[in-house]
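Worked problem 6 (solution included).
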Amino acid sequence: MDSVITAAARALASGDPLGALGRVSLRDDPSALALRGIAMARLGDFERARTLLKQAARAFGSSEPVAAARCVVAEAEIALVSRDLARNDNKLQAARNTLENRGDFANAAHARHIEANRLVLSGQLDMAEKLLSEIDAQNLPPLLQAAHELAIAGIATRRLDTITARAALAKAMQIASHMNVPMMMAEVEKAQRILDTPAARLIQNGQERPILLDEVAQLPTPETLIIDACRYIVRQDDTIIALASRPVLFSLLRMLASAWPGDVSRDDLVKTAFHAREADESHRARLRVEIGRIRAKIRKFVTIRATRDGFVLSPRNKAHIIAVLAPPVEGNHGPLLALLADGEAWSSSALALTLGCSQRTIQRALDDLASQGKVQFYGKGRARRWLTPPFPGFTTSLLLPGPLPGT
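Solution. The predicted structure is:
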């Protein structure tokens, strides 16, 4: 490798993509093409970066398999940042195997980080954790150690393990500060803000207050019945009742829990759960049926008593309390906004893949959000990308795909 390529690589490693481009912008040999591609990616021109990296990989060919594999890893990282989650990962896995077999363990570990982060985005936390556990982090270069800690923090945050997440982020910040890499420091600070801003609202005894992820993680106790409106579950300690497929039941239960220890009138229950303007006898009959179904679902924890005007929840143990865990902001399309709140540009196909629904459903939801000014897009056709700046004042970790705590 000549001195110009070495200088450009060092400029990229120190966070100076413009300095790297200034050295190799007029060269078209494979090494220069690869460095130009990485520099363009750092500057946000992902399409041009992908083209340059593909050209570099073809130019390296089978005569330089390690260099070609590094180009494939760099292209996979661009796909991750641009949220192209539908791409085939066979090339990345083949490149990782090549790097490991040829002794380039640092770039092989970087490939594992990319795979793990992609799995985290789609909620496959166990598989991501398994990939990370196979990395010998102690022998990685400092910046890759910081990236490793960031990946660990991302998994821990999704699992609501805030102690592990904070410890990992502290290590990552220490490394990034010591190496004086502003881009890595900004990435760590972004992850830390998620832990330091309200993640949900807790409604209890008729009062509402914002809470952090730390407090959310401590909520499931034997004395507290949680009506989780972020994941549509009822939870007490380690017992979970899923009601995502029964929206009417959950709506009624949430109203009763929000008013506890007071009651809710029959007319209010009918109007909210059944979207009726006025409650007639047919609505009241349906309400009695749905209340009976709720009683059967939650009879282990609480009973529902009829009052003169409506219904009220009554814990079987008088020492127990009832609380509602509500999203930070009410409205439709919460999980969709949670994904877009990371500030990255997503395709509708990637959003559909992550949320497990049809692309047409996602497109309708995006059009609805765009008409309300909550999201914006650029590009046309298959190149269209959707994004929104993070909402100030709260994080949306509870709405992201992933397993429930304790399952």
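Discussion: Residues 162-179 form the longest helix (18 residues).
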